């Protein structure tokens, strides 16, 4: 189903896609994934905050969620100052899986697989974390999304 195309324009903001001065249409699933991954979820009480973080962030609407514990966004923002380690990759994968769990709960996806990797490893102050997200739709179609380099969407494809 078409929707306004939402893109992860950079590591710190999401934008609507424009072409020729017009808003572009995209797939609702891709927009939902971008919003889920790149919006800041509230940090848990036991989450260490990144250096200079002044709040636990998150969306105020979570307090009004119809089901207790429902949260919008991801905790990927907590990795802002992390070193390029296997533990950081593991946490990135966990945070992305957590942010996309609603796709299975709401039966939009039969399965969601997330892989994290270093796109440019060991580059001083410029390491780039990549996420590979494969969403298997209930009817069997696979949606593959790839995000890297300043969290820009690199490629996406849907195949039967």
Task: Based on the model shown, name its key terms.
globular, alpha+beta, two-stranded antiparallel sheet, 31% strand, single chain, 160 residues, four-stranded antiparallel sheet
Structure description:
The protein is of the alpha+beta class and 160 residues long. The protein has one domain (2-45, 53-159). Helices cover 19% and strands 31% of the residues. The protein is built from two helices and ten strands. The strands form four sheets. A four-stranded antiparallel sheet has the order 7-8-9-10, covered by helices on one side. The two termini are 16 Å apart.
Radius of gyration from CA coordinates: 16 Å
- Share of helix among residues? 10-25%
Run of helices and strands: EEEEEEHHEEEE
Structural class: alpha+beta
**How many discrete domains?**
1
Q: Short summary of the structure?
A:
This protein is 19% helix and 31% strand. The protein is an alpha+beta fold and 160 residues long.
Spell out the blueprint of helices and strands:
Blueprint: E1 2-4, E2 6-10, E3 13-16, E4 18-19, E5 22-23, E6 25-27, H1 28-38, H2 86-105, E7 111-118, E8 129-136, E9 142-148, E10 152-159
Antiparallel strand pairs: 1-6, 2-3, 4-5, 7-8, 8-9, 9-10
